[in-house]
Batch of 3 targets.
Target 1
Amino acid sequence: MSLGFTKQKGFFTKYEIPERLPHMVSINEFNHSRDSLVDIYTVSDTTEGFFEAFRKLRTITPQAPVIDHGGNESSTFADCVMMSKNCYLSNVVINECEDILYSNIVIQNNKSIINANFVVDNCSNIFQSSYVVNSFNIFYSKLIINSSDIRFCVNCSGCHSCLMCHDLQNQSYCIENKQYTKEAFDIQKQELIAQKNTFDQLYSQLDISKCTISSDQSQGNFIAFSDQVTDGYFIDRVSKGKNLMYVNGPGKVEDMVDCFDA
């Protein structure tokens, strides 16, 4: 999976080295020829070796500029998209997602996601955030689960209306981990929102040295509801895993090794 896009041979594509893919075709042409791709293969001279034979096969095999899994609408300029619409400059957008811009790994019924990374399960209105699960109205935050109206926070689960907080569970109207009345919180919130020129600085100062929620015996970062994970990054509900990145499941998955985007 590419994390960037380029323009090659008139196509919007994730591939940066056109020499490796000389036979690039449109998505429609590739889909129409998909069933006949096996007919391209011919038995080569066995003395030339596997890699040389593979290289030659690669030069004549049609290749789509991006992967379109089908069922999409207005998502030409995105890669690895399935059953979603209005996706732009984004990677891996899967199942009933809408209005996804400049984002990576957005899975299962998410809407209005902008400049975000790893957003899963019924999220909406997410901006400049990483690892958000089942939450809405999340801005400039990281590792936020089952929460709403969160700004400049890290490691928060089950929280509502929090500013500049870290490592909280089931809290509301907190600023820097101190709870306020709703009225006092709203005043300070409006003061912060008015200082838009400080947003990037506040975001860069978030402490992400150890982002984990409810995870035991695990090594890595951005790990939630997992156990016995070694070298895991952006992991959700995994047991007994090693060398993993961007792995989540509808239930806890077990015994995964050397997996990316699973």
Target 2
Amino acid sequence: MLSLLSVWLGLGCLAVSVAMLVYRPWFSDASVTIALYSAAASMCFAGMVLFSLRRRDSIEVGVAMQRTQCKVALFLALLGAGIIYGLVNAAERAPVDPVPSADIALYLRFRGSGPISRSELGIVRSDQRGSLNETGV
């Protein structure tokens, strides 16, 4: 029974990873987490069943089919996890505009006092910035 569960978990992981590959809104933290944990569970269950069947003969009833199910489960889970890792590696990182903590403190200080001018926040255009030699820094 555990070998059948591992096949279904591996198939679910592969289905979610292909869905993330085709339909980008599925590519989220939750779906990546669920798919990777299902792949890990599938491989764990398949490994446990293969380990428990290591000394039994293939002639016995159901042993050959359970081994085949476990091998298929391992293949499906590894393929699904590989697709997910490829997607995560190929994903572009969102551009981050770092805000110095002094600007945040200044914003919080002036937040309740009406509109803040750009000069109060220290935001200047690039043509208004002085060179390093003029500022002395």
Target 3
Amino acid sequence: MDIRIVSVTREALLPFMEYLSEEEQLLVGQSGYFCLGAVGDLGQEEMAAGVLLFCVKRDRAQILNLTVYQELEEIRDALVAEYNRVGKRSGLRGFDRPGADEGPELLVLNMENVEELIPYLTEDIAENIGRVFFHGLAVVDQGIPVAGMVWETRHEQEDADRENHILFLKIDKAEVTDLLFREYEELLRGDKVVRTRVCLPAKGSREEKQILQQRGFSVALSEGDDILTSLEEIAGIPAFSKIKVPDTVKPLKTMSTRDYNMTVRKLNSQGRYGVCRDLMYLPRNYFDNEISCYLEEMGEIGGMLLLHRLPSGKNKVVLMAAMSKEKTAAIPQMIKGAVSLALKLYDPATPVLIDRHNYQSLALSEKLFPEGFGIPVYVGVREEL
């Protein structure tokens, strides 16, 4: 087979798109990201035969995707050979890695090694590594990430069963499934976890769904807790036109450190931490201090609305709480106040994620978004021995 290796640019991406995910396609042409393409005679005409996508950070190269037509070794070897030639010419580290032929390598994710895996895990998932209660594993084969899992351990501070909640699972090479799950199961036994729950976006997770079922999970398609909307859609809600934002609703950046710490401690002691079970451990700058809001009347804090800006650019509502039933009306006021502040800083089309994680947030979202539908997800559960 006659194989040619070419440099794939954004302008020449079309023939190679079938070998790249949508997220990987967006990386091609960006600073620090490079793509090699294989072109070969695969029948009656010459056509795209595979790609090797890699990134370069801090003088080190990292393969992100190596996919070839029908897994033909000849095409794979040609791409890797050109990749190594590029490395030798540039003097970068990460090429011809020692031990690359020793088989898949299992990594327990931490702050040091997660950076190189960000393109595989996505920024929004990778930022959780290092937070209390969050854990992750990845499998790397010949320098290429081929599987990953990130989960949160819940109920660690409560008199209840410990559960793991898997929020990311990606398996691109079926042969490493046992390696990934054996390590996961060993870790959960050490943590005395009695149950594993999983929630994955339905889009792009069909194979992972089948793998979970094979591993003993009951899995079903469901409506997710997250509603995806935008700043302009929220601002256009008819109910908001009747709401006035009083001067007592203020941006979080004006809140004193003492009041912030006292409010967070009080909410945490009441089990009102929104979607952040590690609320007490998160630094204040985890939240967007420019648009997050709080209610202060006569020196007393009456409510708090916290938003986190994800690395992808989405704003996520992670906590909305009134300090008493009498202050419940302040929640819509804080939401409108936060949106008004956000529209001064961000594009009106900026995505906003609202997690309907409890009755209060569900009831409010149904009132504000009567036609809103949660992102479709696969949810599953498995009892652990």
